[in-house]
Amino acid sequence: MPRKKTYKTPRGTKDILPEEQKYWQFIFSKAESFYKSSGFQRIFTPVFEEEELFARSIGGGTDIVKKEMYTFRDKSGNRLALRPEGTAGIIRAYIEHGMHTLPQPVKLYYIEPFFRYERPQEGRQRQFWQFGFEIIGDCHPIIDAQGVLLAWQSYKELGLSGLSLQINSIGCVKCHPRFRKILQDYYKKRKEDLCSNCRRRISVNPLRILDCKQKKCQKLTKNAPQIIDNLCNDCHEHFKLVLEYLDETNLPYNLNPHLVRGLDYYTKTVFEFWYKEEGSQNALGGGGRYDNLVSDLGGKSTCAFGFSAGIDRIVLNLKQQKIPIPRKKPVYVFVAQLGESAKKKSLALLEKLWQENIGATCALSKDNIKSQLKQASKQDIPITLILGQKEIIDGTIIIRNMREGIQEVVSQERLIEELKKRLM
Ligand code: AMP
To answer: Going by C-beta distance under 8 Å and a sequence separation of 6 or more, which residues neighbour residue 274?
Structure first.
C-alpha cells in the first residue's frame, strides 16, 4: 500500500504543545494583569486588513512591506494582507470607531499573533506573537517616559533581567529633509562599501541604512552623522524632556544615536530593549512615538505612543535565564463515577464545581473505578470525588484524599463547603 502523505507545520511556524504552554500562559496572564491594572483596555483587531493600510503606515520602502508581507486577493478581488504588526490596525480602529471622542489618551493593549515572511531562525518566526500597548491622544513628553517605563516593567513582571534599554530620537517631518540630505551626502561618498540594498536606499530612504543588519553597512553607520545633532528645536526640546523625566526613575538607558526602527511611522522618541546589548537581532521589543500616523490614515491630527514585545523571544529568554514559572491553579478534584446514573449525575457535579471555581476533571467514558483512580493519581490530583449507585440513593458523595488514601462520606449538599475547607 502506498504510504499516505503526512503534513508538517509551514516553515517559520510552530505548534505550541502542552509542555510549552506554561511559559505562554504565564506571559499572557502577566501582560494582561499588568496592563489592565495600569489603566489599559484590551483590543482585538482582525488578523488581516487591507494591504494598503500597512503600506501607508509602515511605509512602502520598508522591508516589512516590500519583502515580508503575506498578501493575497480574496474571492472578491480585494487586496488583503496578514497583519505584520499591531499598531496600524489599532489606529485604523481608533479612527473607524471615533475613539477621538473618548477621554484622551485612549490606552489600549493587545496580545496577538503576527506574520512576516522572514528567514526563520531561533527567535525569528514567520508567525510570531507580540504583546503591546498604544497610548493615543497625548503629545506630552512625559508620556514617552511613562511608556518606556511601562514597557520596562512588562519585562520586570516576568522576572527577566539583563535587558538594556536603547533610546534615540529620530525627529519629525520638519527635521527629516535636512537630515536625509546630510545622510545622503555621507553615504554617497561611501557607496561602494554599502550592500546593494542600501545603495538603493540612499536616494529612496537613507534613514533605513542605519537599520541595515549587514556588517559592512553597520561599519559605515558607526561614524555616520547623528540625527540627534540635527533635530529641530521642538524635537530637541521634546527629547531633552523625555530624558529628564527618565532620569527621575531608576531605569538605566543607553543613548543610542543610530537606533531607528524598521517602521516608517515613528517620529521623535524611539526605543528598544536588547538582551545583553548584543544588537537588534536580540531585540525583545521596542516602540516609540508616532505623531503623524492617525492623520496619515485619515483621522484628526493626534499624537500617539506605542510599544510591542516579542513573546517568542521572551519565552527563549525565560528558559535561558531559568526563570521559575509559577504553577497555574492546579486541577484540584477528579470526579470518578460508577454506574450509569452516577455517570449522568457527574456532569451536573462538574458544572457545579466549575461554577464554584474549583478546578475539576474526570474520565467520564471510563466505567472501571480503579482505572479512574489511577488516572487521578497519575495527574497528581489531590482529591477524588467518588459517586456510585449507593451515593446517588443516599444523596452523598465520597471525598478521597489521594495522598493519604483516606475517604470520607459527606452529603452532596455540603460538598462545596467541605471542598473549600480543604482548598484553604
Ligand atoms: P517590531 O514590530 O519589528 O518592532 O518588533 C517588535 C518585537 O517583536 C521585536 O523586538 C521582536 O522581539 C519581536 N519580533 C519581530 N519580528 C519577529 C519575528 N519574525 N519572530 C519573532 N519575534 C519577532
So the answer is: 163, 164, 166, 280, 282, 283, 284
